[in-house]
Amino acid sequence: MPKGSLMLAITKAAGSPSEYVFWASPTGDQIRVRGLVHLYTPSSPASEQSVASLLPDLDWEAFRLEQWKGLSSHLRATFVHEAPGEPVDDDHEEEVERLEVGDEKEEAALKRFCLVVFEPRRSIGAKPPNRFTWTLEDNGSWTKQRVAV
């Protein structure tokens, strides 16, 4: 594991190619989306430049804070904790269970909270699929019937 800021190392790879695959369980439909991943962190001017062109009129920092406020207090508390595997001092405080907006540890947690922005470049299978049922007739032939999705 590299020492230092892992987040900084990741943000330098702005616009990294990625692919996401989603499955619709009952039907087995697959949707693939390829694109670029950008990270917006308030402490990295490079990350702001990376996302600024995607939505130039958006105040990215205000949007990040809006998303932060929408998180549960339990999820916000996870941003106070040290990264897994990091050494802790003997006088290490107990882990924070909840973090309300405005709590004293919020500033430290916010420094670790970033936006992951996905810029789609190609989408496969995102349109509604055609659906058919097949019925075996008495004469051994199959009848194809289109059905609603």
TrEMBL record:
<dbReference type="InterPro" id="IPR012349">
    <property type="entry name" value="Split_barrel_FMN-bd"/>
</dbReference>
<protein>
    <recommendedName>
        <fullName>Pyridoxamine 5'-phosphate oxidase Alr4036 family FMN-binding domain-containing protein</fullName>
    </recommendedName>
</protein>
